[in-house]
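Task: encode each sequence below as C-alpha cells.

Item 1
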Amino acid sequence: MESLLLGLAVLACPAGMGIMMWMMGRGHRQGGGQGSEKEQQIALLRAEIDQLKAERAADRTRSES
C-alpha cells in the first residue's frame, strides 16, 4: 500500500505539469482573435509615427526657408 501511494506521489508532479502545459497551449490557440487586434493596433501606431515624421520634416523645411 505504501509503495502505491509513493508511486502516485511521484507521478503527481509530472502529470500536473503536463495538464497545465496542455491547458496553456489550448488557451493560446483560442486567443487567436487577439493577435489580429494587436496587429491592427500596431498598424495604427506605425501610421501615426509616419504622420508625425512627415510633420516634423515639413516643419524643418519651413524653418530652413
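Item 2
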Amino acid sequence: MTLSFLLLFSLFFIGCSSKPKQQTIRVAEVTRSIFYAPQYVALSEGFFEKEGINVELTTTWGGDKTMTTLLSDGADIALVGSETSIYVYAQGTTDPVINFAQLTQTDGTFLVSRNKVENFTWEHLKGSTFLGQRKGGMPQMVGEFVLKKHHIDPKQDLQLIQNIDFANIASAFASGTGDYVQLFEPQATLFEQQGIGHIVASFGSESGKVPYTVFMTKQSFLNENKDVIERYTKAIYEAQQWVAVHSNKEIAESISPFFEDTPLSLIETVVDRYKSQGSFATDPILDKTEWNNLQNIMDEAGELPKRVDYNILVNTEFAEKALQ
C-alpha cells in the first residue's frame, strides 16, 4: 500500500513538474490585423502556453509608436516592419534592435478604388488622387516601389497624400478623400462589401518577398533571455505550420476572438486572400534575399539611411532551432 502510494505520488509530481512555469512576455504589435493570423493562432491554440510563455499583447498603432514602446522598455518584443530596426541602427544606438522571427513575407495592403474600374491597369492611377500610407513606413515604400515598377512617378503622375495618421486613413477615404487608397485587410474587403470602394490590385502580389512584419527585440534583452526567445520562436513556427495545413475556415474560427466585431465569413475571406498570395511566412527564417529586397525598396523610396549588413540586425539562430 505504501509503495503504491509513493509510486502514484511520484508520477503525479513528475506530471506536474513537466509543465513549464509560465513567464510573462510583453509584446507590442504595430496594428491589429488578420495579416498577423499566425500570431493569433499561437495564442488561441495554446502554443505559447505550451512553451511556458504568457503573452501580454498590446496594439500600439504605428511603426514609430511600436518602436518607441520597445526602446523605452514598454515591451519586451515588438511585431513591426524590419525597416524600423534599420532606422534605429542608423541613429547610432548602442543597443540595436534584432530581427529574430519573421511572421509575414509580403506586403499586406491592397489598392482600393472609389469607383468600380473595368479592366483595371496601373495606368488608371495617372492623374488621380492617391491616399497612401505614412512616409517612411513599409506600406508607403512598397506602394511607391510598385508604382515605379509600373512606370508611374508617385511625385509627378498623381497627387500623393501621405500626411494622414495610420489609424485615420480608412476613415479619411470613407469621408471622401482620394480616388484610390492603400489599405490593409479587413478594411479593404469591408469597404468593398459596404460599397465604399473596390479592390483592384494587391501590393503584396506585386512587390515580391520582403521581411514585412517581424518579431524583434533589443540586443540586451536577447542576450539575457535566449531561452525565452527560443521558446517564443518555436511557438510561432508551430503556429505557422498550423496555418499552412488548416483550412481558411478553421483559421478564421481560431483567430475570431481577436476580431470580435468582424463577421466570421469576412475573416475567412481575408485569410484566403492573404494565404493564396503567400503572405503568411511558413517558417520564421528571415533570409538574405528578403533583407536585400527590403533595403532596395527603402533605397528606391529615398528612405534608406545606410545599408546595414544582414548579420548585424538579423539573428536566425532561434528560427533555425525551431525548424529542427
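Check on item 2: Residues 5-9 have pLDDT under 50 and may be disordered. The longest strand covers residues 97-104.
End of task.
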